[in-house]
């Protein structure tokens, strides 16, 4: 049985989620089937992944064969950045729910704090002639967040939250809205331990879920750097000590810090292996060694922006807005 975290609205979220980014074709069905058969009940999805229909079909197949009920599952969806305006948000969640053949998401997140110009469903990342993302100057994440509560009121989402928000951005939401995000999903791994941001969120009753927890060695930034978290000497040493794989050590590192973890794999054996992280505990000394690996290595930094109000990676841990543009 995979443990659960209680969100600030009382909902229970399984600690371990199957990540579905970059999955396509038949591997989606294999991965979802293997995950549900292995005990996963939390599936992490997003419109921008381009595979909602396949993920939905795979989930529905497991519901129809009696493996699981919809009520036993926890499905996370995400609002893409080019649907940041309130008048576009309803279309986005409705499209995602239709794609997945569902009536509601258990958790629905603002995917990034960066509002992009709306170009419909066909062009999700509008770029200017220099290759920069085109920001919608008449939209902002505060307006988007205030509109998110309507999804809870309408029953289309059981809980709402954010993803890739820094402490400044979360502070603005808390000051200017009466709804506390249930979750902030952020990049977390031993090379980017996010110690201050996690503490900031926990102090404000915002649950943290980490992605790229195992280092995402197939991401362009990782390939370019030549860095492989799972081959780090400390990871390898601890894997041998506990009789686990480096990937299991990485996932346990997150879970033991009180956060949820998204584990991305399309290989059935690894999907099962990733559930075997609740039968051991890393010692305090070993947790300290893992925390010491931090090198501020941001795998997803290519989705930053030079607009400081929206950049999720800028000045994460300042608690004031001095020097930052007013939205």
From TrEMBL:
Write the protein's name.
Answer: NADP-dependent oxidoreductase domain-containing protein
Lineage, highest ranks first: Eukaryota, Metazoa, Chordata, Tunicata, Ascidiacea
Q: Which organism is it from?
A: Clavelina lepadiformis (Light-bulb sea squirt)
Report the CDD domains cross-referenced here.
Answer: AKR_AKR1-5-like (cd19071)
- The residues covered by the NADP-dependent oxidoreductase domain are 22-293
Query: Record's family?
Result: Belongs to the aldo/keto reductase family.
